[in-house]
């Protein structure tokens, strides 16, 4: 007998095969910004979005933890298939940085995506100086940026970096000098688009006045929402895309890391996983769980699709080292909310006092 595939399984798999097996519509009400064409294709294809003028898949893949940070560095033989499988499922936007590893993440991304040149957008970041594999500080002097970019190009195995971010501000170098250097590198064909990470609204404006900024990257998720107050309005005004890192709140919103006694690095290092915060944030998780039931999706799929639904110029980049998690996360593309549902969710989550998150004022300063 043919096995019935539930919508939940479909969302987990996110494959065309599953789509073909289902007779009934598999998606909820469509979001306001999608065209009729997009709506008809949504069960089998990955929607596209624009960050400034740069077209990318509506969901990206974060490749940081593949090189360590949250866990020991992972073998490239295991990570490259995850990156390629994401591409096969429609992901065309990959996030890395020279600091991840350092260098290891860029090397894995470069090797994994070499066969797909011209079909993918790779974003990387510069900002730091290194002594061998030890980061020694921030350095955005023009000559150092040039040196860093050459290293990124080599490791990524490309002639041009699609999107190159300043990872963190160097307090000793005015942002105008950084933007001017990037402008020159764009003229020389080494970089296509310029991005900024963890910066204040004022820095975004100053940089954008010198060289068009395509994307701003900072932490944003259903639990960490402070970017909405000061950063989103600037992005909207200047036509800049926003790329949330930590879109699953480093696993919190997957609903799989609720037992404090069993927690890994999260217990030591992440504010919203501290015992009291984890308990307080259960109220938010209860809302997400409820919506996961309503949408026959998983909690992380609700968390990611909620981000996508906030603005048409937001592209989350969930990070993972686990092939099943990657597939689950990509399945978020098939979860949609009506405007009324979004209002209902907003109303519920704003009643919860979340703990361990930034204050809105912190977004007024460069990190
Ligand atoms: N600009 C910046 O300063 C900055 C800072 C941090 C990160 N980033 C970028 O943003 C990307 C994403 O951010 P992030 O990695 O910090 O946060 P994230 O994507 O919210 O969380 C990643 C963590 O959640 C776990 N996870 C993800 N999907 C899961 C699932 N479906 N089920 C269970 N666990 C899951 C991962 O573990 P598993 O590996 O076990 O799946 C990992 O520990 C990074 O890869 C990096 O490219 C940028």
Overview of this structure, please?
The chain is built from 15 helices and eleven strands. It has 367 residues and is of the alpha/beta class. The chain has one domain: NADP-dependent oxidoreductase domain (TIM Barrel), CATH 3.20.20. A seven-stranded parallel beta sheet has the order 3-4-5-8-9-10-11, with helices on one face. Strands 1-2 form a two-stranded antiparallel sheet. α4 crosses α5, α7 packs parallel to α8 and α12 crosses α13. The longest helix has 15 residues. The relative contact order is 0.15. Bound molecules: NADP nicotinamide-adenine-dinucleotide phosphate. NADP nicotinamide-adenine-dinucleotide phosphate (NAP) binds next to α14.
Topology:
Layout (H helix, E strand, L loop, with lengths): L6 H7 L2 H6 L14 H6 L6 E4 L2 E4 L3 E2 L13 H13 L4 E3 L8 H10 L7 E6 L1 E4 L2 E5 L3 H15 L4 E6 L8 H13 L3 E7 L3 H10 L2 E7 L7 H12 L2 E5 L19 H5 L5 H6 L1 H13 L4 H12 L12 H8 L8 H12 L17
Parallel strand pairs: 3-4, 4-5, 5-8, 8-9, 9-10, 10-11
Antiparallel strand pairs: 1-2, 6-7
The protein binds NADP nicotinamide-adenine-dinucleotide phosphate.
Key phrases:
367 residues; alpha/beta; TIM Barrel; seven-stranded parallel beta sheet; two-stranded antiparallel ribbon; disordered N terminus; binds NADP nicotinamide-adenine-dinucleotide phosphate
